[in-house]
Write a structure and sequence with these properties.
The chain has 286 residues and is of the alpha+beta class. Helix content is 27%, strand content 22%. The chain is built from 8 helices and 10 strands. α6 crosses α7. The protein is elongated, with a radius of gyration of 20 Å. The chain binds a DNA duplex (14 and 14 nucleotides) through loops.
Length: 286
DNA sequence: GTCGATGTTATCAA
DNA sequence: TTTGATAACATCGA
């Protein structure tokens, strides 16, 4: 759900709303959310002011004065919402940042997979959740991209989902990018031609930029910090479109399972590699 | 009421 | 290095 474009949109919407704002106090209603935080937000955040908001992969990095940074990972269903403090408390609200303007920055998360950590800004680069992240898909150059994948023998889809290889892609944007580049998700990366990898590099960047432009994909839960849903779901060509016609050739999109993730493909536009063809026949996929 | 699926990530086993 | 399984959790639809 929140992948790179969605996290980027939350960051941008947050920037407009809370930059320069000061925290009065913090209330934590579900400990597991801040369980692994090196510094206790309840203790260290009162009096701090938001100075910067950026994103690295799917991790939100909120900079505060006094050399502190708030890291937020939305995982599946996390939301950061800015609301008037009198707004009704919605279900699954786990952390509330009370702002001196009388508003709330609220962290909601139905499935409780997301997390928040307060850390010292100077240790950010060594932070375990950040240090191992691969390059940003929108910043990596063609040559480095191709090189990174040619040397790997894993299937291309799990590789694209691996945050240490490339930071920020999730299930939706991997399926959309592979379709646009006409590459089968099971193709071993090392056996994909440089031409196709070049095409994939372009497809990923185009898809991500377009999705950011559309404020992300809202399938069910995603909202920006102003509560606004995205519209990129309307531009999906394969994700969530099983049995509907492929926008390129008209054959019905099918849903298969790749590395135990739901995967949407057009079997005509994305030809199965030889080794994969057998397992696709023997393992019923849906 | 039960089951399986949902999508992200860490961790462990092989 | 790669693959697969499992677990964290709430909700929804069959």
């Amino acid at each position: 759900m929140p992948e790179l474009p969605e996290v980027e949109c939350v960051a941008r919407s947050l920037r407009k709303r809370i930059l320069g704002e000061t925290i009065e106090r913090v209330s934590v209603h579900l400990d597991r959310v801040v369980r692994d935080s090196p510094l206790n937000p309840v203790e260290h955040l009162p009096g701090r002011t938001f100075e910067s908001i950026r994103r690295r992969g799917k991790v939100m990095i909120i900079g505060l004065d006094g050399g502190l940074s708030l890291l937020v990972h939305l995982r599946m269903t996390g939301q950061l919402l800015v609301l008037p403090s009198k707004a009704p408390l919605e279900k699954h609200t786990h952390v509330i940042f009370h702002l001196i303007s009388g508003r709330h920055l609220r962290y909601r998360d139905q499935r409780q997979f997301g997390w928040i950590q307060l850390v010292e800004s100077r240790s950010l680069d060594e932070h375990p959740k950040i240090a191992r992240l691969g390059p940003e898909p929108l910043e990596i150059g063609r040559a480095e991209f191709v090189e990174r994948f040619t040397v790997r023998h894993r299937q291309i889809k799990p590789l694209l989902l691996d945050q240490t290889v490339l930071a920020g892609l999730g299930n939706i944007y991997v399926d959309e990018s592979l379709f646009r580049a006409r590459i089968h998700p099971l193709a071993p990366a090392s056996r994909i031609s440089a031409i196709k990898l070049n095409r994939l590099h372009g497809a990923i960047q185009a898809v991500l930029l377009k999705a950011i432009d559309c404020s992300g994909s809202t399938l069910d839960y995603f909202r920006d910090s102003g509560g606004r849903p995205g519209t990129f779901q309307n531009e999906h060509q394969v994700y969530g479109r099983e049995e509907l016609p492929c926008p390129r050739c008209g054959r019905p999109i099918i849903k298969i399972r790749v590395a135990s993730r739901g995967t949407h493909i057009c079997t005509r536009c994305q030809r199965a590699p030889r080794e994969a063809a057998r397992s696709l026949r023997t393992v019923p996929t849906r």
